[in-house]
C-alpha cells in the first residue's frame, strides 16, 4: 500500500537556486582553495559538548520518520522497517519503509527528467549548493549529524566527528575545488581553429548505493555525481538511514532542486534489479560487499544491449588489511597504531588492520603490550565517554564475527590471546579479540571479518621473501597496508614488492585514517575500482566531455595541394 505524503518543501527550508545569495561567485571560485575541517574536542563543559548532548537526548527519545523522497514528494509504503540502536537494539531510532519497484521506477523517471536542467546549470551554481551544504554542516546541523551517527551506527564522539562532520564537509569542499581544477583544461587552438572542451554530466541517472559504516560515504557517493551535473537515486543502508536522511535534508535546504538527488530506501535486490534494467542507467557508485558489487556488475552485463550508454561502475568493497613489522620498527608506533586501526569503531572500517605480521625477535614484546592494552579497553554505549568502542552494527554482523571467533576457539592452529567474548542480549557487543595464528593460510588471515578481531602471525626473519609473497597473494583484496620499519632500504624494498597489495600504503603509520585531499582513498583487486575518492580526479568519473571544433576560415577547396600539381 503506497501512501503519498505532503511535499518535502513543507518539511525543509528549501531554498531555490535563484533566490539565495551564493557563498561563492564564478569570480571567487577561481580562487577557492579547500581546507580540511578541524576536528573538535567536545571537552566536558564546552559549548560543543552541551549542544551535542541536547541533540543526543532528542534523538534518543524520538523515533524519527524517514520517508522516501522522489522529486518534491515524499512517500511511505506498507513495507515498514525500523532502524535500531546497535548498542540497545530494543530502542527504535527511526521508522522508514522500502520503496517498491514502481516507486523506484518513478524515481528513475523523475531523475532523468531533472537531469537536463540540472546539467545545464553552470558548474559554479551547482558547486554553490554543496558549498552551502558544507557550511550548514559546520555549525547549524553539526550536532544532528553527530547524534544520528552516534546513535544509529554506534560511533563514539571522536569516530562520529571525524566521519559525519569533518570528512563529509571535506568531501563537499574538496570535490568542488577538484572539479573546478579538473575542468580548467582546454585543448590547443591554432590559427582559424578554436577548440573547446565542455565538461558535461552524463545522460540518464546514477545509482548511489551506500554503506552503514561512514555517514560521509553516503553524502559523498550521492553528491559527487550531482556536482558534476548528474542526477541520482540514493539507496542508503538500512542501518544508517537516519544519518543519511539528515544529510539529504541538508542538501535540500542548501538549495538542491527537486529530483537531483532522490532518497530511496529499498530492499537491495529490488533496487539493484530496477536500476540495472533501466536503459537510462549512467552508472553505479557503490560501497559494500564484493558479492553485491559483482551481482550489480553481472546484471549490467546481462542488460548491455538495452542501455543508451555503457554504464560506469565505481566500487569500494573492503579489504584484508595488514600491518607488517620489521625488527627495526618503533614498537610504540606499532602497538598503538595497531590497537587504533584494529579496534576503533569495532574494526568496521574498510581499512581496519585485521592481520599483523611480527618478526620473532620482537613478537613477544609486542603481543604482551597489545594484550595489556586490550585489557584496559572498555566496550559499551557510545554515550559513555570511557568506552573506546561500542556494538557492531547488527545481528548479521554479530553472527558473522562470532563465527570467526568460534573458529579460532576450536582450531588447533589458533590461540585466543585476549578477548573472545560476545553478548547480544542488549546490544551487539563483541570484545576486542587478539588471536595468534600458526597457519599462514588460516581463514583468519585471508578472509575479511569486518569486526574487532586482530589475527597475528609470527614470521621467521630468514623467510621474509616467502612472507611477502603470502601477504601479497593470500587474500583477494588490495586496499590498505602498513609497513613499520626504520631501515629505509627495507622500506623501499618491501614497498616495491607489495606495491599492488594495497591502494593506500602507510609507512610507520596505521592503516586507517585517510584524509580527504591528503590520502585519496581506494583499492584494487577485489577491494574495488580504485577511483580514489577524496582525490583530484574522482569527479571526472561522472563527466562525459564534449569536444567542439570551430573553424572561422572559409574552406575553399576539397582537394589537397599535392593533387593539383602538374
Could you give the order of strands across the largest sheet?
15-18-19-14-13-21-22
Q: State the end-to-end CA separation.
A: 83 Å
Secondary structure tally: strands: 24
Helix content: 25-40%
Could you state the oligomeric state of the chains shown? single chain
Largest sheet: 7 strands, mixed
| Overall form | globular
Beta content comes to 15-25%
Q: Uncertain segments of ≥5 residues (pLDDT<50)? A: 6-27
The secondary-structure class comes to alpha/beta
Q: Total number of helical segments?
A: 15
Kindly summarize this structure in a few lines.
The protein has 566 residues and is of the alpha/beta class. 36% of the residues lie in helices and 20% in strands. The N and C termini lie far apart (83 Å).
Your description of this structure?
- The protein has 566 residues and is an alpha/beta fold.
- The chain has helices spanning 26-29, 47-60, 101-120, 123-138, 142-153, 157-182, 215-227, 241-253, 268-276, 290-302, 331-343, 360-376, 395-410, 464-473, 488-497, and strands at 2-4, 64-66, 68-70, 73-77, 80-85, 88-97, 193-200, 205-209, 232-235, 261-263, 281-287, 312-316, 321-325, 353-359, 414-418, 422-423, 429-430, 433-437, 453-459, 477-478, 480-484, 504-507, 524-525, 544-551.
- Strands 15-18-19-14-13-21-22 form a seven-stranded mixed β-sheet, sandwiched between helices. A five-stranded parallel β-sheet has the order 10-9-8-11-12, with helices on both faces.
- A hairpin with a 2-residue loop joins strand 3 (68-70) and strand 4.
- Helix 3 (101-120) crosses helix 9 (268-276), helix 4 (123-138) crosses helix 8 and helix 6 (157-182) runs parallel beside helix 7 (215-227).
- The radius of gyration is 25 Å and the shape is globular.
Amino acid at each position: 500500500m503506497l501512501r503519498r505524503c505532503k511535499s518535502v518543501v513543507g518539511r525543509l527550508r528549501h531554498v531555490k537556486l535563484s533566490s539565495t545569495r551564493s557563498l561563492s561567485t564564478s569570480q571567487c571560485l577561481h580562487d577557492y582553495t579547500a581546507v580540511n575541517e578541524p576536528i573538535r574536542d567536545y571537552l566536558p563543559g564546552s559549548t560543543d559538548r552541551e549542544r551535542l548532548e541536547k541533540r543526543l537526548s532528542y534523538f534518543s527519545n524520538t523515533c524519527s520518520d524517514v520517508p522516501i523522497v522522489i522529486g518534491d514528494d515524499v512517500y511511505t509504503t506498507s513495507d515498514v522497517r525500523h532502524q535500531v540502536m546497535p548498542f540497545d537494539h530494543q530502542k527504535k531510532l527511526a521508522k522508514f519503509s522500502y520503496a517498491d519497484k514502481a516507486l523506484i521506477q518513478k524515481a528513475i523517471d523523475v531523475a532523468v527528467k531533472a537531469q537536463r536542467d540540472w546539467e545545464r546549470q553552470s558548474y559554479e551554481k551547482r558547486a554553490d549548493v554543496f558549498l552551502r551544504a558544507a557550511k550548514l554542516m559546520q555549525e547549524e546541523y553539526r550536532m544532528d549529524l553527530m547524534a544520528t551517527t552516534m546513535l544509529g551506527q554506534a560511533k563514539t564522539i571522536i569516530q562520529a566527528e571525524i566521519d559525519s562532520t569533518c570528512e563529509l564537509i571535506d568531501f563537499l569542499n574538496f570535490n568542488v575545488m577538484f572539479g573546478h581544477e579538473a575542468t580548467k583544461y582546454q585543448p590547443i587552438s591554432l590559427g582559424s581553429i578554436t577548440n573547446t572542451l565542455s565538461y558535461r554530466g552524463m545522460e540518464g541517472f546514477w545509482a548511489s548505493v551506500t554503506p552503514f559504516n561512514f555517514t560521509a560515504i553516503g553524502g559523498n557517493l550521492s553528491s559527487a555525481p550531482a556536482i558534476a551535473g548528474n542526477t541520482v537515486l540514493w539507496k542508503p543502508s538500512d542501518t544508517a538511514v537516519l544519518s543519511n536522511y539528515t544529510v539529504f535534508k541538508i542538501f535540500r535546504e542548501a538549495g538542491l532542486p527537486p529530483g537531483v538527488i532522490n532518497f530511496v530506501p529499498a530492499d537491495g535486490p529490488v533496487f539493484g534489479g530496477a536500476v540495472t534494467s533501466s536503459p537510462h542507467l549512467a552508472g553505479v557508485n557503490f560501497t559494500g560487499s564484493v558479492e553485491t558489487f559483482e551481482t550489480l556488475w553481472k546484471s549490467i552485463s546481462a542488460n548491455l544491449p538495452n542501455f543508451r550508454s555503457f554504464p560506469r561502475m565505481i566500487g569500494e568493497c573492503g579489504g584484508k588489511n595488514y600491518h607488517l613489522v620489521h625488527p627495526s620498527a618503533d614498537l610504540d608506533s606499532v602497538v598503538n597504531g595497531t590497537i587504533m586501526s584494529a579496534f576503533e569503531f569495532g574494526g568496521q572500517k574498510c581499512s581496519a588492520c585485521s592481520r599483523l605480521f611480527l618478526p620473532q625477535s620482537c613478537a613477544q614484546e609486542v603481543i604482551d603490550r597489545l594484550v595489556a592494552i586490550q585489557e584496559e579497553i572498555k566496550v559499551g554505549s557510545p554515550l559513555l565517554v570511557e568506552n573506546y568502542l561500542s556494538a557492531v552494527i547488527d545481528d548479521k554482523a554479530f553472527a558473522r564475527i562470532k563465527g570467526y571467533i568460534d573458529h579460532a576457539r576450536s582450531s588447533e592452529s589458533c590461540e585466543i590471546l585476549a578477548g573472545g567474548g560476545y553478548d547480544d542480549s542488549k546490544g551487539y557487543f563483541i570484545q576486542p579479540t587478539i588471536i595468534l595464528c600458526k597457519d599462514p593460510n588460516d581463514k583468519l588471515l585471508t578472509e575479511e571479518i569486518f569486526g574487532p578481531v586482530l589475527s597475528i602471525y609470527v614470521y621467521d626473519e630468514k623467510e621474509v621473501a616467502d612472507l611477502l609473497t603470502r601477504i601479497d597473494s593470500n587474500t583477494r583484496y588490495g586496499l590498505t597496508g602498513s609497513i613499520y620499519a626504520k631501515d629505509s632500504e627495507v622500506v623501499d624494498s618491501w614497498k616495491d614488492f607489495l606495491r599492488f597489495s594495497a591502494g593506500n600504503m602507510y609507512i610507520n603509520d596505521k592503516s586507517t585514517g585517510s584524509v580527504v585531499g591528503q590520502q585519496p582513498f581506494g583499492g584494487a583487486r577485489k577491494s574495488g575500482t580504485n577511483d580514489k575518492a577524496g582525490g583530484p580526479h574522482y569527479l571526472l568519473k561522472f563527466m562525459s566531455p564534449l569536444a567542439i571544433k570551430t573553424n572561422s576560415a572559409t574552406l575553399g577547396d576539397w582537394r589537397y595541394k599535392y593533387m593539383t600539381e602538374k
